[in-house]
Amino acid sequence: MKKEVQLLVDKGDLLPLMEAFYTIQGEGYHKGTAAYFIRIGGCDVGCHWCDVKESWNADLHPPTKTVKIVEDAKKYSDTIVVTGGEPLMWDMSILTTLLKDNGLQTHIETSGAYRVTGTWDWFCLSPKKMKLPTQEAYNMANELKVIVYNKNDFRFAEEQAAKVNKDCILYLQPEWSKRDKIVPEIVDYVMANPKWKVSLQTHKYLNIP
Ligand SMILES: C[S@@+](CC[C@H](N)C(=O)[O-])C[C@H]1O[C@@H](n2cnc3c(N)ncnc32)[C@H](O)[C@@H]1O
Ligand SMILES: Nc1nc2[nH]cc(C(=O)O)c2c(=O)[nH]1
Ligand code: SF4
Ligand SMILES: [Mg+2]
């Protein structure tokens, strides 16, 4: 990447945009709500079951003017979900300032593994064992969404729940490829431990992005 471009990306004036689309939030607390998704490229967390591995290499996604991303977003929805990749690898301050200047609600989907930047109306923290969240991310989380791939993940989920703030809503979400096996375990777990709720990737059942 050219030095001038790199500097603008570092500031958040440009962001490596993978895709942006208007759909229904499929997961977590806001499931069922129409929202415009901004998917930023780049992630080095390395979840082996990640459903968007094409996002990982930031160099494959064109540095895009943040102003232009917001101009497009405001045509579609009042609710904007910023995801990735790992959005917090980049400085989100300019993006969220522009979104808020346009009166839009800013939601983030993050592993929380990097310093928190930006102003967020809704912070979805989905922690990963390989690169744990920062303390700030635990403090900010409105929802904790732990992906359950096998039974060991219930223990991880409890460890993560012990670190979030007291108002944080707790979700267990089946890893998609293991859903047939793990959903019954999640159902039993939530009935036995009702502080947890189930989150499904409902967009995949609806066949929408
Ligand atoms: C693709 S990630 C991007 C945002 C950020 N890197 C993160 O992991 O939170 C968006 C959400 O999808 C979840 N996710 C990714 N792959 C999944 C899978 N195979 N099954 C269930 N959830 C998955 C993540 O845990 C996260 O909550
Ligand atoms: N419909 C829909 N809802 C989602 N919620 C979180 C997603 C994500 O990939 O961050 C996602 C996604 O990719 N599509
Ligand atoms: S942190 Fe998110 S984007 Fe990165 S590999 Fe894991 S699920 Fe995929
Ligand atoms: Mg997704």
From TrEMBL:
SUPFAM superfamilies: Radical SAM enzymes. Its EC number is 4.3.99.3. Keywords: 4Fe-4S, Iron, Iron-sulfur, Lyase, Magnesium, Metal-binding, Queuosine biosynthesis, S-adenosyl-L-methionine. The keyword Coiled coil does not apply. S-adenosyl-L-methionine binds at W49, C50, D51, G85, S126, P127, K128. InterPro entries: 7-CO-7-deazaguanine_synth-like (IPR024924), Aldolase_TIM (IPR013785), rSAM (IPR007197), rSAM_sf (IPR058240). Residues 30-209 form the Radical SAM core domain. Its cofactor is Mg(2+); S-adenosyl-L-methionine; [4Fe-4S] cluster. It catalyses: 6-carboxy-5,6,7,8-tetrahydropterin + H(+) = 7-carboxy-7-carbaguanine + NH4(+). It is an enzyme of class 4 (lyase). [4Fe-4S] cluster binds at C43, C47, C50. It holds the Pfam family Radical_SAM. Substrate binds at I24, Q25, G26, R39, T83, P209. PANTHER family: 7-CARBOXY-7-DEAZAGUANINE SYNTHASE. Homodimer. Catalyzes the complex heterocyclic radical-mediated conversion of 6-carboxy-5,6,7,8-tetrahydropterin (CPH4) to 7-carboxy-7-deazaguanine (CDG), a step common to the biosynthetic pathways of all 7-deazapurine-containing compounds. This is 7-carboxy-7-deazaguanine synthase. The lineage of its organism: Bacteria, Pseudomonadati, Bacteroidota, Flavobacteriia, Flavobacteriales.
